[in-house]
Write a structure and sequence with these properties.
The protein is built from 4 helices and 4 strands; from the N terminus they run ββαβααβα. With about 90 residues, it is α+β, with helices and mostly antiparallel strands.
């Protein structure tokens, strides 16, 4: 399997009186932005729960969800060849 860092798209709500299209209201969140947000969230969660759960703060596996979330787009190893064949057909 090939793992591909993905992008997330969010659509911003229309403000009163606006008539923007969906494309104009779409916001992409890239690899670096997603990594920073996930790391920040995980560290904050660890700090807040440090008083409740013993051993959570500084746990080396606490950031694993950051990577698993970013690499959840998977393709077969021959994906590129299949794509080229499909494109040429």
């Amino acid at each position: 399997m090939l793992f591909v860092p993905g992008y997330e798209a969010r659509i911003v709500r229309q403000k009163p009186g606006e008539t923007k299209s969906v494309e104009e209201r779409t916001r992409l969140i890239g690899y670096e932005q997603s990594m920073r947000a996930n790391i920040r969230y995980t560290l904050r969660h660890d700090l807040v729960s440090a008083g409740h759960d013993v051993g959570v703060l500084g746990n080396t596996t606490s950031l694993n969800s950051t990577y698993s979330h970013l690499y959840d787009e998977r393709h077969p190893v021959d994906f590129i060849e299949r794509y080229r064949e499909q494109k040429d057909a």
